[in-house]
Amino acid sequence: MELVKLTHANLDLEHICCAISSNKDIQVLSKKNWLKERLDEGLVFLKGNVRGKCFIEYIPAEYAWIPIEADGYMYIDCLWVSGQFKGHGYSNLLLNACIEESREKGKKGLAVLSSTKKMGFLSDPGYMKCKGFARADTAEPYFELMYLPFAEDAGRPCFRNTVHNHSSMPRGFVLYYTNQCPFTAKYVPLLEDMAKARNVAFQAIHIRSREEAQNAPTPFTTFSLFYDSQFVTHEILSEKKFEKIMVSKGV
């Protein structure tokens, strides 16, 4: 399979795999605008030359939108191969390309956010372990920071202390999110409207900078929902799923 790297020159012409509508779609627009600002920071979006979810996105850890200490590492934002493209070795192809480029750039290794078991929107821990990744750190309730060092003395990445401090959150629902994932542009306003219609306390905190993301109270800054300071989910919610959560909280 031919791999295509997004650049300033081709970004408007290429689709971004997880959202393949036109550039006028709010989801595509928000993601591409986010990407444009990251490309000059060393972000790489590498995708198969196919129409569907087959890509890897990575960036020097110093510029990653996640509260970790991993200087000198490359951080994988997302590795996603799904549907008809699974089972053909494309995940290995994309990951190996990331490893090769990271070595060429003199990085200490790779870091990626995973979980204690396979979950949506997070890297599959079974696959990452199979590729040589090990657990570097953990954060409640199920997040795992995994790493692949290129040398024995590379050092171990870790979460920042902010991920363990939720005491200052207001009551009710609090949602932290970024435009790193295109789906938040569609679903966050829908969830806000649902909460407003039921007069439920709901605060959406839009993380707009790397500094804000690196000091966030959650490892998964793309989308993390809390209720009364307790973590609820990192999975981007449909209206139906959010309805179930509100019912379960008695609101």
Summarize this structure as a short list of keywords or feature phrases.
alpha+beta; 7-stranded mixed sheet; 4-stranded mixed sheet; Glutaredoxin; 2 domains; 26% helix; 6 helices; 251 residues; 27% strand; Aminopeptidase
Question: Using DSSP, what is the number of strands?
Answer: 13
* Content-based structural category: alpha+beta
Number of domains: 2
**Remind me, CATH topology of the largest domain?**
Aminopeptidase
CATH secondary-structure class of the largest domain: Alpha Beta
Structure characterization notes:
The protein is α+β, with helices and mostly antiparallel strands and 251 residues long. The protein folds into two domains: 3-159, Gcn5-related N-acetyltransferase (GNAT) (Aminopeptidase), CATH 3.40.630; 162-248, Glutaredoxin. 26% of the residues lie in helices and 27% in strands. The protein has six helices and 13 strands. It has helices spanning 26-39, 90-104, 125-130, 183-197, 210-214, 239-248, and strands spanning 3-5, 44-48, 54-60, 68-69, 73-81, 109-115, 134-139, 143-149, 158-159, 173-177, 202-206, 223-227, 230-233. A seven-stranded mixed β-sheet has the order 1-2-3-5-6-8-7. Strands 11-10-12-13 form a four-stranded mixed β-sheet, covered by helices on one side. A two-stranded antiparallel ribbon has the order 4-9. Strand 2 and strand 3 (54-60) form a beta hairpin. The longest helix is centred in the middle third of the chain and has 15 residues, at 90-104.
Write a brief structural summary.
This protein is an alpha+beta fold and about 250 residues long. The chain has helices at about 25-40, 90-105, 125-130, 185-195, 210-215, 240-250, and strands at about 5, 45-50, 55-60, 70, 75-80, 110-115, 135-140, 145-150, 160, 175, 200-205, 225, 230-235. A seven-stranded mixed beta sheet has the order 1-2-3-5-6-8-7. Strands 11-10-12-13 form a four-stranded mixed beta sheet, covered by helices on one side.
